[in-house]
């Protein structure tokens, strides 16, 4: 990471760095994820047949609880329409997932190695981080569109415009950085990220927060998302092995993947913990089993 890269990150709220991982390292991460998916146990709330409104509510609550308690676990999050009413796959299981998260960095050796690699530590030090910690990690699939599945209402989602600080709030703001590693080429056609350069300087207008214990839903939003000018978004294609550094307040999105190519990504967030308060209202909380681990291991 050069001084010019640091300057671009500070000015635009993001920067692309090529060559973080080799092609072989990317393939190893993808192969390990294929093994994880093949061995996964599908959550009970996905396997149950629901027929009444009350049971549908229980399904929704089960899904919400599965998410909100995933910060110190490796869990599976599926696209809509990939199960039949008995909870059986109607598409290949390797094409059924939206993401796997949120503690790959803690429990999977290959992902842990990448997260704490000298290159990642070097980036953090170049950005001036004194005591960064890893807050969460995800493997995002962004599967390719297959028309043969469309009659099953299989979705190929876009990521709507948002700021990471909406979900990972700190006081002061500006302490969270996303690292988005392309394990395959990320292009305009297969769903690369788009940014509004400089938008990290405008604060946030919406927060996702935990609701009081014993209430449902388990999370809610305070405030509303701004309406953004579509013409201000700039595409950020990344070659396989490259990484995008994402300021916690920069506005970004991705489009649907309507190409014949997949777009697998390993992404994680780090936070400067020195003189920073992690909001107790965030959906994601450190636990006794997994406090946020220090990025620097030496």
From TrEMBL:
Pfam families xref list: PhyH (PF05721)
Keywords associated with the record: Iron, Metal-binding
InterPro entries, per database record: Phytyl_CoA_dOase-like
Residue ranges that the Swiss-Prot or TrEMBL entry lists as coiled coil: none
Cofactor (UniProt): Fe cation
Example GO molecular function: metal ion binding
Family recorded in the similarity comment: Belongs to the PhyH family. PHYHD1 subfamily.
Function summary: 2-oxoglutarate(2OG)-dependent dioxygenase that catalyzes the conversion of 2-oxoglutarate to succinate and CO(2) in an iron-dependent manner. However, does not couple 2OG turnover to the hydroxylation of acyl-coenzyme A derivatives, implying that it is not directly involved in phytanoyl coenzyme-A metabolism. Does not show detectable activity towards fatty acid CoA thioesters.
Name assigned to this protein: Phytanoyl-CoA dioxygenase domain-containing protein 1
Organism: Myripristis murdjan (pinecone soldierfish)
């Amino acid at each position: 990471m050069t001084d010019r890269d640091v300057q671009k990150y500070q000015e635009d709220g993001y920067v692309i760095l090529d060559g973080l991982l080799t092609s072989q390292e990317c393939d190893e991460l993808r192969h390990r994820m294929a093994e994880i998916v093949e061995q996964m146990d599908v959550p009970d709330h996905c396997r149950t047949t629901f027929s009444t409104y009350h049971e549908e509510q229980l399904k929704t609550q089960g899904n919400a609880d599965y998410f909100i308690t995933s910060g110190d676990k490796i869990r599976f999050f599926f696209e809509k329409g990939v199960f039949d009413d008995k909870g059986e796959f109607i598409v290949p299981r390797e094409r059924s997932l939206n993401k796997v998260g949120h503690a790959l960095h803690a429990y999977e050796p290959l992902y842990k190695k990448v997260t704490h690699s000298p290159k990642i530590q070097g980036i953090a030090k170049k950005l001036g981080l004194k005591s960064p910690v890893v807050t969460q990690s995800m493997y995002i699939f962004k599967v390719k569109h297959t028309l043969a599945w469309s009659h099953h209402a299989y979705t190929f989602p876009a990521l709507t415009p948002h700021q990471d600080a909406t979900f990972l709030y700190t006081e002061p703001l500006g302490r969270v950085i996303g690292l988005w590693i392309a394990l395959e080429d990320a292009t305009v056609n297969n769903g690369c990220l788009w940014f509004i350069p400089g938008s990290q300087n405008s604060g946030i207008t919406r927060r996702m927060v935990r609701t009081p214990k014993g209430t449902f839903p388990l999370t809610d939003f305070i405030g509303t998302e701004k309406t953004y000018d579509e013409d201000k978004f700039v595409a950020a294609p990344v070659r396989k092995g490259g990484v995008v550094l994402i300021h916690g307040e920069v506005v970004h999105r991705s489009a649907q993947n309507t190409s014949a190519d997949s777009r697998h990504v390993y992404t994680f967030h780090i936070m400067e913990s020195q003189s920073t308060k992690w909001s107790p209202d965030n959906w994601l909380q450190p636990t006794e089993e997994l406090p946020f681990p220090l990025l620097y291991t030496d």
